[in-house]
Design brief:
- The chain is of the alpha+beta class.
- Helices cover 43% and strands 28% of the residues.
- The strands form 2 sheets. A 6-stranded antiparallel sheet has the order 1-2-3-10-5-8, sandwiched between helices. A 4-stranded antiparallel sheet has the order 4-9-6-7, with no helix packed on it.
- The chain is globular.
- It binds 2-acetamido-2-deoxy-beta-D-glucopyranose (NAG) (2 copies).
Length: 231
């Protein structure tokens, strides 16, 4: 007898804790209410689809204006918006985070060069609406790729993995819904194991904290208003 019950018990306890957490988060994700939804983000983005020779900065500025009008208090202010390189799954892109909480995020994403790699498997549903450029998706188990053009929305379901490829000058609006901290592991993995670009790691963590802080302030403001109204 190599294992006595006292050596197994901590393993048993930890397994129970992890399972409870996973079920708890899963239940919460399926029952909580959300600020954004995939259809509204896609519909708003589609209005600003641009041709390859147009100025994407101008299009993004309009999407940003639309989001700020519709989701007041949930979009980071201009001084916190920053284009940050992102290396993950072998590809390289750039993102500009607009909103993030524990369960949702909205960001601009794209690349100025051709890039290809693994999509990552996430504990989140992710949808991307293309403003300009081309996005190729190769589904697991398939022998062909799907081509997405400006105005299309690409859906990446929870737990799925695909091969992804963007042509130079592809820019899109991305919405993620799920357990967002879990997606950070993938977002940061290449920075640790390949590029060792820790300044980028710092930028990503910094902007995520700022976005979370904005959400906390929003709900504190809401709560104070509620107290005021009921006095
Ligand atoms: C696009 O517009 C921005 C301002 O909105 C400007 O700073 C930038 O130079 C323009 N880019 C091109 C390629 O015209
Ligand atoms: C993710 O997408 C699937 C399929 O559309 C849906 O059934 C599920 O509820 C979504 N999960 C969340 C957390 O929105």
């Amino acid at each position: 007898m190599f294992f006595s019950f006292s050596t197994i018990r901590p393993i048993f306890n930890w397994t129970a804790i992890i399972f409870t957490l996973i079920f708890g988060i899963h239940y919460w994700l399926n029952h909580k209410s959300y600020v954004f939804d995939e259809k509204s983000i896609a519909a708003l983005s589609r209005k600003y689809v641009v041709g390859p020779d147009s100025n994407i900065s101008t299009a993004y500025a309009k999407v940003l204006e639309g989001l700020r009008a519709k989701y007041t208090g949930h979009i980071l202010p201009d001084q916190d918006l920053q284009w940050i390189f992102m290396n993950a799954g072998g590809w390289m892109g750039s993102m500009c985070l607009l909103h993030a909480s524990l369960t949702e995020y909205v960001l601009f994403f794209g690349t100025a060069v051709d890039t290809t790699g693994h999509s990552g498997r996430y504990w989140a549903n992710i949808s991307d609406t293309i403003l300009t450029g081309t996005f190729y998706q190769w589904q697991e188990g398939s022998l062909t790729r799907t081509v997405y053009k400006p105005g299309d929305t690409v859906f990446h379901g929870m737990g799925e993995a695909t091969a992804v490829s963007w042509t130079a000058g592809t820019w899109m609006v991305e919405y993620g819904r799920g357990f967002i901290p879990s997606t950070l592991f993938f977002a940061l993995a290449d920075s640790f194991t390949s590029t060792t670009d820790f300044l980028t790691v710092f930028y990503i963590i910094k902007v995520y904290i700022k976005a979370m802080f904005l959400e906390v302030m929003f709900y504190i403001g809401d709560f104070r208003q509620l107290i005021k109204d009921s006095l």
